[in-house]
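User: Can you help me understand a structure? I only have the sequence.
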Amino acid sequence: MTRRRIIWLLVLVALAYAILIPACAYGYTVFQLGLGRLEGVYPNAEAGMRSRLEKSYVGIQDIQIDHAGTNSFDGSNPHIWFVTAQVYAERRADGSSLHPNGYDFPGSFFLKVHDGWIYRPEGSFPELIGFFMKVFHLEGQ
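Assistant: Let's start by predicting it. Here is the structure, written out as tokens:
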């Protein structure tokens, strides 16, 4: 292979990556936001947490939101929130028992979109989704 062909090949590979990586990031972000919307759009992150907990526990006596705020220490990503709560209930909806201390202490990620807040599980990488929401201007105000 000549030197000129190698350079052209490298240029083509670089262009492919320059197009492919942002396209994949945008596609993943939009897909995850769509999944979140299908599960529900909430007026605020706390309401989203309460709704999720009401589906996840049986015989709820009390739900206390312990923390609701940005997941970033400096508040730089106000569209990514982490919410924790204390849930006093008879049992989890899947039939398993609560923590021995008598309550569970779950936490969940919520992302601000234009029409409200959506839940995204940790396994969907909500911080990465939030990063790309900011890059592509998909975050809510």
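Now, to help you interpret it: Strands lie at 57-58, 62-70, 80-88, 91-92, 107-113, 116-120. The first strand starts at residue 57 and ends at 58. Let me know which part you'd like to focus on.
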